[in-house]
Design brief:
single chain, Laminin, 2 domains, 13 strands, LRP1B protein, LDLR_classB_rpt, Wnt receptor activity, Wnt-protein binding, 6-blade_b-propeller_TolB-like
C-alpha cells in the first residue's frame, strides 16, 4: 500500500495500492494541513503532523482508533516524521534539531542532535522490511520486471501487478508492452 496526505480543497490522509487503484480516505475530518506522515508497519498505524491544528495524531490503517499524541505551538515548526520503537522523530525547522517524542502519550520530548539543512527523517530497521520470497514484479527469465516493458507496479497484493508506461507511451493490448 501507498499512504499519503493531501491538503488541497479537502485535507485528508489516504491510502491506495501501489498502482494507484483502490484509493481510500483514512482521515477526512478534523484535519487541516497534514504535512508529514509515518507508518508503524508492524502494528499497522499511520501517524501524521497537522501544522495548522498544531497536532500529531494516529489512526490504524482503516482510519479507526484515532488518537491525538500531542498538541501545541511547537508542532508548527516540525517537518518530516518517522516512527521507531516507542518514539516519533521529527525535524524542528525552527532550530534544526531532531526531536524525539514518546509516541504513546506525547511525553519525554527531547532534542537529540542539531542538523544543518534537514527537512526529512527516516529510520531504517530490518524488522520493518517485509520478507517476501517472490512477487509479481520479479524479473522474468529475460530480466524484465514482471514482464512489463517499462514499469511494474505491485497491485492489491504482492502476487498481483499492473504494467504502466513512461510518459509519451501507451500500454499495448497485451497489458505488458509499451508503444
Amino acid at each position: 500500500k501507498l499512504f499519503f496526505t493531501d491538503y488541497g480543497n479537502a485535507a485528508k490522509v489516504e491510502r491506495c495500492d501501489m498502482d494507484g487503484m483502490n484509493r481510500t480516505w483514512i482521515v477526512d475530518s478534523k484535519i487541516e494541513q497534514p504535512t508529514a506522515l509515518a507508518l508503524d508497519l508492524i502494528n499497522k498505524y499511520v501517524y501524521w503532523l497537522d501544522i495548522y491544528l498544531e497536532s500529531v495524531e494516529v489512526v490504524d490503517y482503516q482510519g479507526r482508533r484515532r488518537q491525538t499524541i500531542t498538541k501545541g505551538r511547537q508542532i508548527r515548526h516540525l517537518c518530516g516524521l518517522a516512527v521507531f520503537e516507542n518514539y516519533l522523530y521529527a525535524i524542528n525547522s525552527d532550530n534544526l534539531s531532531i526531536l524525539r517524542v514518546n509516541r504513546y502519550n506525547g511525553t519525554d520530548v527531547q532534542a537529540l542532535a542539531r542538523l544543518d539543512n534537514a527537512k526529512e527523517i527516516r529510520v531504517y530497521q530490518k524488522r520493518t522490511q517485509a520478507a517476501v520470497r517472490s512477487h509479481a514484479c520479479e524479473a522474468d527469465p529475460y530480466g524484465v520486471p514482471g514482464g512489463c516493458s517499462h514499469l511494474c507496479l505491485l497491485s492489491s497484493s504482492y502476487k498481483a501487478r499492473t504494467c504502466r508506461c513512461r510518459t509519451g507511451f501507451i500500454l499495448g493490448s497485451d497489458g505488458r508492452s509499451c508503444k
